[in-house]
Amino acid sequence: QVQLVESGGGLVQAGGSLRLSCAASGRTFNVLTMAWFRQAPGKERDFVAAITPNGRSSNYVDSVQGRFSISRDDAKRAVYLQMNSLKPEDTAVYYCASRGGNGLLTMSRYYNYWGQGTQVTVSS
User: Fold this and answer.
1) What totals of helices (H) and strands (E) does the chain contain, helices first?
2) Which of 12, 59, 66, 79 would you call most buried, defined as having the most Cβ atoms within 10 angstroms of its Cβ?
3) Is the model more confident about 31 or about 17?
4) Going by DSSP bridges, is the β-strand pair 68-73/58-60 parallel, antiparallel, or unpaired?
5) Rounded to whole angstroms, how far apart are CA atoms 78 and 76?
6) Distance in angstroms (rounded) separating the CA atoms of residues 109 and 67
7) Long-range CB contact pairs, 42-50, < 8 A, 24+
8) Is 29 left (phi over 0), alpha (psi -120 to 50) or beta?
9) 104-115 per-position pLDDT tens digit
């Protein structure tokens, strides 16, 4: 079992920045691939970014490449999403997710555990 709790969401103007955090408890954190997904109203939950257990590899959806950065701190059992140059289309509920193994998979069905989500709203 893994418990995930997100924080750091809020309201920001376009061009601004936010840093999301996800705190994990339960299963050994350093064997987990961690990811961020987001879901806008009326839309499916979409992949944003993922990072391998050792933190050496990550991947991003094209729309956030160069603006968002995923990182992890295994000592703190936490994963972060630094979001810069935010756009109104980034508005969504952001979810932290985890899975065992090294694959940087982008489909939500491959992730076993999920947080409750944190709202990010970007105003124009």
Assistant:
1) 0, 11
2) 79
3) 17
4) unpaired
5) 5
6) 26
7) 43/92, 45/95, 45/108, 47/106, 47/107, 47/108, 48/81, 48/94, 49/81, 50/104, 50/105, 50/106
8) alpha
9) 899 999 999 999
- Could you report the per-residue pLDDT of 38-67, keeping only the tens digit for each? 999 999 999 999 999 989 999 999 999 999
DSSP per-residue letters across 24-72 = EEES-GGGEEEEEEEE-TTS-EEEEEEE-TTSS-EEE-GGGTTTEEEEE
Among 73, 123, 75, 120, CA closest to 93: 120
89: which DSSP letter? G
CA dist., res. 115 & res. 117, Å (int): 6
Residue 78 identity:
A
User: Band of the pLDDT at 12, cuts 50, 70, 90?
Assistant: very high
Q: Work out the number of other CB atoms within 10 angstroms of the CB of residue 24.
A: 23
